[in-house]
DNA sequence: CGCGTTTGACCCGCGC
DNA sequence: GCGCGGGTCAAACGCG
């Protein structure tokens, strides 16, 4: 990708402030900082216009106007002078319009470049995910390699240790046991007891969680023995029409064809969330609450939350109207979109920067979101692909 | 009879 | 140390 020659070399750093300030530069069109135009720049302000004057386009003003150091009174003006002045002002206005147009072009170019970079980032993420999936599937047959891969790729919670493998496992760094594995949570409006995600699940427990009259069901993936993926299904206590499905763990088997085919869509959605959270690195604020995934032809409320030492990426699909997926489930939506950062944990934990293994910094949240996606590509692919795809199919214009 | 679900007991981490 | 609550286990049960 090449830059316009105007921005090459030092000029670029001089006239393009840090990424976080570009919008300010754009808005502050008449700022006095604009003194730094390059001499050879085609978009530089005309030299005959005093630098302080080009802001004062009070063209409709009938009061005294200044030109240089001389104040011209209305009584001094003859018709010819008025004509000359109008003509001069018109030239100035035209030049400013031209300048404005060039700046718009520059801005458009910057926006396009930014969009292209975002797309590239999403694609790179996608490739990375597929690589990790291939690596994981190639070492599944060797428990020891699998264990090593797990220790490198995932951080396993002690509570989710697989007794089948852990019995023979080599002791791993204790730090890993204390940190919880990232989760992916999906909110969907449905009457069905469970969303169809293309995988086979076996229920192994049910429990009444405190503060929620609806029981929480625990499922384990049964597509392959030893698969560590589990999911929790629970109705939202504030709106029982909303089904909250939380996935945790990574599959040790190839995904169902349908889910695998749609994995890229999911990955892209996840990558978009990551990229959206990285666009403002200097901010202390959480990433945007609302991520408009126009490239996917839809709007997905993607968010990140962090509670009980467990980072969670949430995709809120309950905003879609009339979702009727192709399978057995019947989804009927709509309600006011629920708060994304719905728990106090997001404001408390994130602002406190309490992320294990990370120093309290603004990047910890971004890193956590990345970790949630990077460490569990199969999770995001398998668990979300079917769901998101169903939405996209049912709502092509959503 | 095999498989999946139910459900009470148990384990474990965390906060006080 | 204790209590609470989330998560898991496993025996009992139901269904095809």
TrEMBL record:
UniProt GO molecular function: DNA-binding transcription factor activity; sequence-specific DNA binding
Protein name: WRKY domain-containing protein
Subcellular location, principal: nucleus
SMART domains in alphabetical order: WRKY (SM00774)
Subcellular compartments: Nucleus
Pfam families cross-referenced by the UniProt entry: WRKY (PF03106)
GO terms under cellular component: nucleus
Native source species: Trapa incisa
């Amino acid at each position: 990708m090449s830059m316009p020659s105007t921005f090459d070399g030092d000029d670029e750093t001089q006239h393009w402030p840090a990424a976080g300030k570009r919008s300010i530069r754009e808005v502050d069109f008449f700022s006095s900082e604009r003194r730094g135009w390059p001499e050879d720049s085609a978009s530089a302000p005309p030299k005959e216009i005093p630098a302080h004057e080009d802001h004062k386009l009070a063209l409709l003003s009938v009061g005294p106007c200044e030109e240089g150091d001389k104040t011209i009174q209305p009584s001094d003006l003859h018709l010819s002078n008025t004509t000359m002045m109008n003509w001069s002002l018109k030239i100035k206005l035209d030049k400013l319009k031209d300048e404005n147009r060039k700046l718009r072009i520059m801005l458009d170019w910057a926006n396009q470049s930014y969009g292209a970079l975002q797309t590239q980032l999403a694609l790179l993420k996608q490739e990375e995910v597929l690589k990790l999936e291939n690596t994981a599937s190639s070492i599944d047959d060797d428990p020891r390699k699998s264990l090593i891969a797990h220790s490198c790729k995932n951080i396993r919670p002690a509570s989710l240790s697989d007794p089948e493998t852990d019995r023979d496992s080599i002791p791993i760094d204790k730090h890993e046991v204390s940190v919880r594995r990232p989760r992916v949570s999906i909110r969907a409006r449905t009457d069905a007891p469970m969303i169809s995600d293309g995988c086979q699940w076996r229920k192994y427990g049910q429990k009444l969680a405190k503060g929620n009259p609806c029981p929480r069901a625990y499922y384990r993936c049964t597509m392959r023995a030893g698969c560590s993926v589990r999911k929790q299904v629970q109705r939202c206590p504030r709106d029982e029409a909303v089904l909250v499905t939380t996935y945790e763990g990574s599959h040790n088997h190839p995904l169902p064809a349908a889910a695998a085919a749609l994995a890229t869509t999911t990955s892209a959605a996840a990558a978009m969330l990551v990229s959206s959270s990285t666009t403002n690195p200097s901010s202390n604020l959480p990433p945007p609450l609302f991520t408009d995934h126009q490239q996917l032809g839809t709007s997905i409320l993607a968010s990140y939350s962090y509670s009980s030492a467990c980072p969670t990426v949430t995709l809120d699909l309950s905003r879609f109207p009339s979702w009727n997926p192709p399978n057995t489930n019947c989804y009927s939506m709509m309600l006011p979109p629920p708060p994304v950062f719905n728990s106090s944990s997001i404001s408390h934990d994130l602002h406190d920067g309490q992320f294990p293994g990370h120093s309290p910094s603004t990047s910890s949240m971004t890193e956590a979101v990345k970790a949630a996606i990077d460490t569990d590509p199969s999770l995001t692919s398998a668990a979300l692909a079917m769901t998101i795809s169903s939405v996209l199919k049912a709502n092509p214009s959503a």
